[in-house]
Every structure is written in structure tokens, then in C-alpha cells.
């Protein structure tokens, strides 16, 4: 039902040059905080993750929070702060769209549009990102089957946008006590057999605990991931969202060195 071509690449244009993801290119790394909190933290984090070897800065402006009373993201002003971090470092920017009404503002700064797990089957949003001339990262819904995920990606492809990256971020299983989600690394060989699309793994949301992120990042690389997404915060204890799963810049720097031992990173 879904199109299955040759293992392919998505080329992301960034101020630092074109970054290819997929097709046996070296593994690219997306790093940064869950939420953009203020200019100093996002620019500082961008500098630190760039120095450690990341090609992309992630950071949420619009946050899909379980509680309506939790920090919702700074919205449009955070997009301006991402632009400042991009200007300072040349890193490619990845940020999430939750509402199609924000899409035009988001594509002005984002080099990759993120569709989050909670919107994986928001079909009207998928059609709208599919109409944009910008790569799209589609995260796996927390209870989505592989077929549902691939068909969601297909909505974007069918709308005319061939530049789709799949991101595994952990699924719901019966034990949520020790890890936030169950990171399904078996998607790497499974998806490789089913689809041509590049595959990113997000061990931060996948485990929910910073101590478990490095080993799962290394396992992802060993199992053939095309790209990694890692949450990094300058002071995880004070983060406005997802502090417990965020690495410090120092720990992230060590991780990129550890990854280089396992496989080829950019
Ligand atoms: C995120 O990347 O911060 C995020 C909200 O991810 P997910 O959609 O995977 O929960
Ligand atoms: Mn997060």
C-alpha cells in the first residue's frame, strides 16, 4: 500500500551546508532542549551541541503537554529565539508544529518540521505539512503500529513532499515504572525492509531518563539508525519540560565521542 523505493536520503539545507540523512550517510545528530526557554539558554545550548558535533538544534516553541497547566512553550517568540540560535551557529533547526495555523511562521525558521507523536495521525495537519517545501520529521505515535506510522508518512508523501524522516520515540507497553516508554529499536531492521525513508531514533523520549540515553543512543547507531535526536539542557534540574531525560552539555559531549567509537557519525 505504501510506496517502497530504494533506501533513500533526505537532504536538509542548513546555513552550515546540506546535511544528508539516510542512504548510508554518516549518522547526523539532532540535539537541544525539549523547550526553548530563553535566548541565553538556547544560544548557549546551540553552541555547546555544535561544538560536540551536532548538525541540528532541536527546541520546542509549541509544546504538546499532558496538563493544560504545564508550560506550553513560548510560541512565536520562541521561533525568534531559534532564529537567533541559527544565526549564531548555522545549525539546522528542528521544531514541532501542533497547529496548521502556525505552519507559515514555523517554516520561516525551521529546516525540518517536526510532527510529534500526539499528532502522528492528525491527517489534516499531515496534508498541510505535505504541501510545504521543507523536510518533515514524523514521530511514531505512542501506540501506533508500524503500518499506521508508515501510512501517516504516506499522507505527507501523497501530498507531494518526498522529504520525510521517521522518528521512533518509544511506545507504550505494560511497564511504565522504570522507563517512560519502551524504545522499540527493532523498528530499525523492520522499517529498513519496508520503506526507503530515513530513520531517526530518539532515546530521550524513548527512555525518559538521562542515565539510559547514552546506551540506547549507542545501540541505535549499532543497529543502523540514520540519525539520533537527543535532548540536551544546560541545567536539566531547572528545565521547564523533560529535565529528567535531558543530558547536560558535558554528558552530550562525551556521548558523541562514545558514538564515534561505535559507528560513523558526521
Ligand atoms: C518532543 O520532541 O519534545 C516531543 C514532544 O516529542 P514526542 O512527540 O515524541 O513526545
Ligand atoms: Mn521533550
TrEMBL record:
Residue span, DAHP synthetase I/KDSA domain: 15-261
Key words, A-Z: Transferase
Keyword Secreted: no
Molecular function via GO: aldehyde-lyase activity; transferase activity
GO biological process, one term: aromatic amino acid family biosynthetic process
Name used for this protein in its record: 3-deoxy-7-phosphoheptulonate synthase
Gene: aroF
